[in-house]
Design a protein that fits this description.
Helices cover 46% and strands 9% of the residues. It is of the alpha/beta class and 461 residues long. The chain is globular.
């Protein structure tokens, strides 16, 4: 990790890359199309930024399972080359008939974005997963389960060990970086994480230290397991906050959509102006770097953790903002580092007793997003199914275990709590619970989970 003049500390971007298992489970409005959109708007554009500076990139095994699945790339290309051009054409013609040539032109530019993504994806010699391979350093739980909600050590072992095994098979060397799904941590996870070889993970300790406390800038050593890196909410809120950068008037409005679900308006309601957005991106990148430099002026590592899908998909200008931040960091003298590199020269502090309590980066900084309200029944269903597997005679059938892994995904609880996908998350959870019971009863089921968790290990051993 090189030293840059002008700053005693460093910035560590952690990009957490994840999509739920949607392969074969619906298309529009919920299902595979989520994955195709993320590929086109986030993952492919990000390839031009990765490698330009040190970035910690995590990739969940369940997302890699889908990128690796036979036929997935072909279906994605059909979506980008057949469905998206037609939907753009219909919106374009509607705007032209309405006498709105500016909006029609922006629809044309949007269509060109998808066409360029398709060409780039099709040209990758080893596919998207192959293109990401040299950049991925951290793994995660097999299906992105909220680990403190699991009922048994056996289930935790399956999620963690399968995630590690999947990373090793796909990417070879592993330095021990492990993204805790939803930053959900509890003290009893440290031992199984350490046993699986985990050396570093990220946690949310704003409720322990307080927003902006300098103790966020120093890793914490646990007795049983990995080093804990506290994500820096004070800096992350510049992006994630309700009034963060993506809310600027000039940026493209994610929520205002055309009849065929395209976006042509800015946050201020005016037609989207790409030149104005580009100027805003440059200003926000400069502001971000200046604020981080002040934050780490006394030393330490500022951990800015973002969902990769925020960049490009949720925030259209996000990938360009990240690229501008990397350039601005070089100009302003802000050191960038990966957490793996920072770990090698770190001077950790002992984890305080308060760090042992259950925490996450969800609402209330606890588990309520995935265990209360609309998500409560999903959480209890997953635990009942887990206990059913534990009570079964002998090792559970692999199909039953895969259904449990699919059921444990944090996505269903999140979507139910935020009411983002209608009945889809509830239907998915119920379907996996029913299939698990049938598999335990000895039924031979159709391979609906076609490519989930091929590296399954832990419970069966």
């Amino acid at each position: 990790m090189s030293r840059r003049r002008g700053s005693d500390g460093a910035l560590a971007f952690v990009l957490h890359t994840h999509m739920p298992y949607v392969e074969g489970f619906g298309t529009w409005p919920f299902g595979e199309e989520w994955l195709w959109e993320a590929i086109a708007t986030s993952y492919v554009p990000l390839l031009d930024v990765l490698g330009r500076a040190p970035i910690t990139l995590s990739l969940t095994p369940v997302l890699a399972d889908q990128l690796e699945a036979p036929g997935a790339a072909e279906r994605c290309l059909r979506f980008l080359r057949e469905l998206r051009p037609e939907s753009h054409r219909r919106d374009r013609e509607r705007f032209r008939r309405a006498g709105q040539p500016g909006l029609a032109a922006e629809i044309e530019r949007s269509a060109a974005d998808y066409a360029a993504a398709a060409e780039r994806l099709d040209a990758l010699p080893h596919g998207l997963l192959g293109a990401l391979r040299e950049h991925v350093s951290w793994t995660s739980a097999a299906t992105h389960a909220v680990l403190p909600l699991l009922a048994s050590d056996a289930a935790i072992a399956v999620q963690v060990q399968t995630g590690v095994a999947a990373h090793r098979r796909r990417f070879g060397e592993w330095s021990g970086g492990f993204w805790l799904p939803e930053c959900a941590h509890a003290s009893w996870l440290d031992e199984p994480l350490g046993a699986a070889g985990v050396r570093s993970t990220c946690v949310e300790l704003t409720g322990v230290f307080g927003l902006g406390d300098p103790r966020h800038l120093r890793p914490l050593a646990t007795a049983e397991g990995p080093m804990l890196w506290a994500i820096d909410r004070a800096v992350m809120s510049l992006v994630w906050g309700e009034r963060g950068y993506p809310a600027a008037a000039a940026y493209r409005d994610y929520h205002a959509m055309t009849r065929h679900h395209h976006r042509v308006w800015a946050n201020d309601g005016a037609p989207y102006d790409r030149a104005a957005a580009a100027a805003q991106t440059a200003a926000d990148a400069a502001d971000f770097v200046a604020r981080v430099r002040r934050r780490v002026s006394g030393g330490g590592v500022c951990v800015c953790a973002l969902d990769t899908e925020l960049l490009g998909h949720w925030w259209y200008e996000g990938v360009r903002w990240l690229a501008a931040v990397l350039d601005e960091a070089a100009r302003q003298g802000l050191e960038l580092t990966t957490l793996d590199a920072a770990l090698e020269r770190s001077d950790p502090a002992p984890a305080p007793p308060e760090a042992a309590r259950v925490s996450s980066w969800g609402e209330g900084r606890d588990l309520r997003t995935w265990s209360a309200g609309p998500a409560a029944e999903l959480a209890w269903s997953a635990r009942r199914c887990e206990l059913a597997l534990l009570a079964s005679a002998g090792p559970p059938p692999p199909r039953a275990l895969r259904e449990l892994l699919a059921l444990q995904a944090s996505d269903w609880g999140f979507l139910a709590t935020r009411r983002l996908a209608g009945e889809y998350p509830v239907e998915r959870a119920r379907g996996h619970a029913v299939a698990l019971a049938r598999a335990l009863a000895g039924e031979q089921l159709e391979p609906a989970l076609r490519h989930l968790a091929p590296d399954l290990c832990g419970w069966l051993q």
